[in-house]
Amino acid sequence: MRIAWFRHANTDAANPLDGTAALVDELRRTHDIDIIVEANAHDFVWRQLQRPWDLFVFELDDTRAHQFIWGYVANYPGVVLLHSIDVANLRVATLASRAAVAADRRFAERLHERFPSANVRYAPAFAGRPRSANDDDLSVARADEEADASVTRRVKFAIYDRRARGGHLIDRAFERARSAGATFDVLDRETSSGVLARSDVVIAPAWPPFHSSLTPLLAAMAAGKAVITTETETTAEWPAIDPQTWRPRGLAVADAPVAVTVDPRDEEHSLMLAIRKLSADEVLRDQLGRAARGWWETHATPAQAASAWAAILREATSLSPPSRPDDWPTQFLVDGSELARDIRSEFGITGDGYEPASGSRSSHS
Questions:
Q1: How far is CA 143 from the centre of its chain?
Q2: H or E stretch covering 335
Q3: Cα(57)–Cα(73) distance, rounded to whole angstroms?
Q4: In terms of Cα–Cα distance, which of 353, 322, 302, 361 is closest to 52?
Q5: Cross-strand bridge partners of residue 57
Q6: How many other C-beta atoms can be found within 10 angstroms of the C-beta atom of residue 347?
Q7: Are 8 and 59 in contact (CB under 8 A)?
Q8: Which of 96, 112, 267, 304 could form a disulfide bond with 74, CB atoms 3.0-4.6 angstroms apart?
Q9: Gap between the Cα atoms of 232 and 262, Å rounded
Q10: What is the DSSP letter of 349?
Q11: What is the tens place of the pLDDT at every residue in 103-133?
Q12: Taking the CB of residue 334, how many other CB atoms lie within 10 A of it?
């Protein structure tokens, strides 16, 4: 199957924080996938007319880099991957597609409740396999520290939080932990694989639910890092530790905890407790990291996600998008091919192929 895959940037399979790069690599084992980004999107219409793709996939999120994709979503019905419930024109994205895919089961359920006529599908969240420490600056930094016996390596925290005000709350929790005697370093707040590799503990709140991707959290687990996140409907399914008691959450939990989860009703205080404990307890950090890596291997690899996506893509070729509502915005009623069709008609070419209309002969041959 030939697929045109629209996304905010070219795929970077070496970066575990690139949400779907590893998925695309897996799907390329059986599909011919062309990545469409803003820089080459202007070629899409004529390429589609010349040699149509079998299916379109559109990644949508609430960022400037994703905005160009809206020019194609409504007029080339395909599969929409929703990274966040904050996506602008969520109704249009869901009702204009053959299928709308959410990487969170609860998010998918809410979409179906809100748009019962839409074809909503669930595919599990995942993260790519992290690079080896030998591939980044981590090994060099650790070697320098080991060479100087007088250096006591401080625990390093990485933060991945998209909330506008979330950073202030985390900063307050850090300050309270320091006031209580904890010692640690906070890495630069840039969303990069290098920061992930250098960290010992990753804070990825994923709060409010469905407003951000789980990729940073799962990438940290894949890298064997101890993680702190929020107790939500999604993470409630995971074996986790409550920082209020340092006991497993749930009444009958047999699996080793894979994360420390914070109650959103006591977020700052519980986060402070988690920071203080993990900055001092190397054994616990190691236990959480190893358990997290094992959980990722069982539940959240790209290969597992690709299996679900393969079924969705096969199904999508036989599905039609829901009927367009009567109040459909006029900007979604044109597909951008009008000029190309006008030029083609001058040569007696009709339809989407390049065969001349019956009985006509081009005078330019």
A1: 33
A2: none
A3: 9
A4: 353
A5: 5, 79
A6: 15
A7: yes
A8: 96
A9: 9
A10: B
A11: 888 889 989 999 898 999 999 999 987 665 4
A12: 11
Low pLDDT (below 50) residues in the chain: 133-145, 147-150, 165, 353-365
Residues in a beta bridge with 33: 3
Which structure tokens are listed for 105?
A: 């089961």
Complete domains list, the chain, with CATH: 2-127+303-334 (3.40.50), 133-300 (3.40.50.2000)
What number of other Cβ atoms are within 10 A of residue 221's Cβ? 31
Q: Tell me whether strands 156-159 and 185-186 are parallel, antiparallel or unpaired.
A: parallel
Nearest CA among 211, 183, 185 for reference residue 198: 185
CA distance 256 to 362: 73
- pLDDT given for residue 361 in this prediction: 35
Distance CA 109, CA 87 (A): 17
Task: Supply the pLDDT for residue 31.
Answer: 97
β-pairing, 120-122 with 156-159? unpaired
Q: What is the pLDDT of residue 144?
A: 46
Q: Are 5 and 57 in contact (CB under 8 A)?
A: yes
- Cβ partners under 8 Å of residue 27, min gap 6: 3, 33, 306, 309, 310, 313
Q: What is the dihedral of CA 143, 144, 150, 152, to 10 degrees?
A: -70
